[in-house]
Amino acid sequence: MTLYQFGQAVCRLYLNALFKVRIYGKENIPDKGAVLLCANHISNNDPPLLGAYIKRPVRYMAKKELFKVPVLKTLLRKLGAFPVNRAGGDKQSLRTSLDILKSGDMVGIFPEGTRSKTGEIGKGLSGAGFFALKSTAHVVPCAIIGPYKMRGRVTLVYGKPISMEEHRANRTSAKEVTEIIMDEIQKLKDQYQDLS
């Protein structure tokens, strides 16, 4: 068992102890090749939820402040996280994300850039569209339906990959592609809301 797999097991134990977790659509994640998981963001529990129940490892950006704690820095890096300056203009984290996708691995991002205080899906930043257009990754929309309440139900839905070929060929803007991704996340949420 790798450290990442051990981390997944710990996350599953934690999430299952606190919440009634329901996962749908794992079959929509391609077995190989680059994947960009795009999810709405409602809690600090979202990153472990997004990656705990699937086979393939997910890499995440994590705020750079977390990497200032020596033990945490080492652990985060071993679990596949990499730092991002949330103040903006962090070209290194953009390059790292694209390099991960180019190597055929999976990156998880939250296009809204911050947690929703109401649980409603907000506007996405253009970063999701940028990664979708600048890579050949499969773009998988994911809806997280909460709220995270003790022993309450939390639902995660992995949607079918969104075809990007036409958008890449037509030079659709990153902002427009992000809007398409966010629309798909909203549709998943609306479709599965009653099951949560």
The level-1 CATH class: Alpha Beta
| Quaternary structure of the protein | single chain
The global form is globular
- Under CATH, the topology can be stated as Glycerol-3-phosphate (1)-acyltransferase
Number of domains: 1
Main sheet record: 7 strands, mixed
What's the CATH superfamily, by name?
Answer: Glycerol-3-phosphate (1)-acyltransferase
What is the CA-based Rg, rounded? 16 Å
Strand order in space, largest sheet: 1-7-6-2-5-3-4
What does this structure look like?
This protein is α/β, with parallel strands linked by helices and 196 residues long. It has a single domain, classed as 3-Layer(aba) Sandwich (Glycerol-3-phosphate (1)-acyltransferase). Helices cover 39% and strands 19% of the residues. It is built from seven helices and seven strands; from the N terminus they run αββαβαβαβαββαα. The protein has a seven-stranded mixed β-sheet, sandwiched between helices. Helix 1 crosses helix 2. The longest helix has 19 residues, at 174-192. The mean pLDDT is 92. Belongs to the 1-acyl-sn-glycerol-3-phosphate acyltransferase family. It catalyses: a 1-acyl-sn-glycero-3-phosphate + an acyl-CoA = a 1,2-diacyl-sn-glycero-3-phosphate + CoA. Residues 35-147 form the Phospholipid/glycerol acyltransferase domain. It is an enzyme of class 2 (transferase).
